[in-house]
Design brief:
Layout: E1 22-31, E2 37-43, E3 48-56, E4 59-66, E5 76-83, E6 88-93, E7 97-99, E8 108-116, E9 121-125, E10 129-131, E11 136-145, E12 150-159, E13 168-177, E14 180-189, E15 207-214, H1 217-220, E16 226-229, E17 238-243, E18 248-255, H2 258-269
Parallel strand pairs: 1-5, 4-6, 5-8, 6-9, 7-10, 8-11, 9-12, 10-12, 11-13
Antiparallel strand pairs: 1-2, 3-4, 12-15, 13-14, 15-18, 16-17, 17-18
């Protein structure tokens, strides 16, 4: 008699929760007794892979590497970075972040919280965030500065990949120094945001960004208002550099593409 054995079950792909991914990355820079900044906390997770980069002088450096596609609809992502008193920390990214639609149609959230202690310096210089067609992302960035903290901050947003419409992107940036608000702004682009692509807002441009510097040096010597880029209405990248009501300066730029956006932001950073 011949007995037929049951076939082994086909391997199943791991299930992805319908509610999306939850992940938090944490970085802490701490100055040792010699003044060199170390990284006692470097924790990635989910799409966040954190890599130590060769330090420069006394500064600790970290590169954010994407371990998977994110954020997708339904994802809840968060990055927390702290430069403790006297420390110096620079955070960059290996590639752009692309917001993509998920399976359920839910929105995604991406929260960044930066804390800079007294006498510390934090440089937040990621690559652009790209809002792909069909995506829906809510992004919040909150920065807390001690009275003598220094901050270098760059933010770039590209509305749609080449040849496609933008997704829905809502973004809020809040910067506080010793509990006092230096900047609190909210922007909205894409489906559901009235007037975002009119001449009163982006004027047909599809790239927007800002560069902010903060530090005690702006107390005695505030930044002077300066226009950046080409003339209004010629389609070229353009922006303005202006002082904030506090020890900081902010450059805001709109551009037809990411390359011209970065060039103008670099010009603002160079002073």
């Amino acid at each position: 008699m011949t007995r037929t054995l049951p076939r082994p079950a086909a391997p199943q792909a791991p299930a992805v929760p319908a509610a999306g991914l939850r992940a938090t990355a944490r970085v802490v820079a701490r100055a040792d007794h010699g003044g060199t900044s170390r990284l006692p906390v470097l924790e990635g997770g989910g799409p966040f892979a954190l890599r130590r980069v060769q330090s420069h002088a006394d500064q600790a450096r970290v590169c954010l590497v994407g371990a998977m596609s994110a954020p997708l609809g339904g994802d809840r992502l968060r990055i927390e970075a702290t430069a403790e008193a006297g420390a110096s920390l620079r955070i960059t990214a290996a590639a752009a972040t692309v917001a993509l639609p998920g399976r359920t149609g839910e929105l995604a959230t991406y929260d960044v919280h930066l804390t800079v202690g007294d006498g510390a310096r934090l440089e937040w210089l990621p690559e652009p965030l790209i809002s792909a067609e069909g995506s829906d992302l809510r992004m919040t960035t909150t920065i807390d500065l001690a009275p003598t903290a220094r901050l270098v901050f760059r933010e770039e947003q590209i509305l749609g990949r080449s040849g496609e419409h933008t997704g829905a992107l809502r973004s809020r940036l809040t910067i506080r120094q010793a509990g006092r608000v230096l900047l609190d702004q909210e922007t909205a682009y894409g489906p559901g945001a009235p007037g975002w692509d009119t001449s009163a807002v982006l004027g047909g441009h599809r790239a927007v960004g800002q560069f902010l510097s903060a530090g005690p040096e702006f107390i005695d010597k505030p930044a002077e208002v300066r226009l950046l880029g080409g003339a209004a209405g010629d389609g070229a990248a353009q922006g303005v550099l202006a002082p904030l009501a506090g020890p900081a300066a902010l450059a805001t730029v709109v551009a037809p593409d990411g390359l011209s956006l970065r060039r103008l932001l670099d010009q603002a950073a160079a002073g």
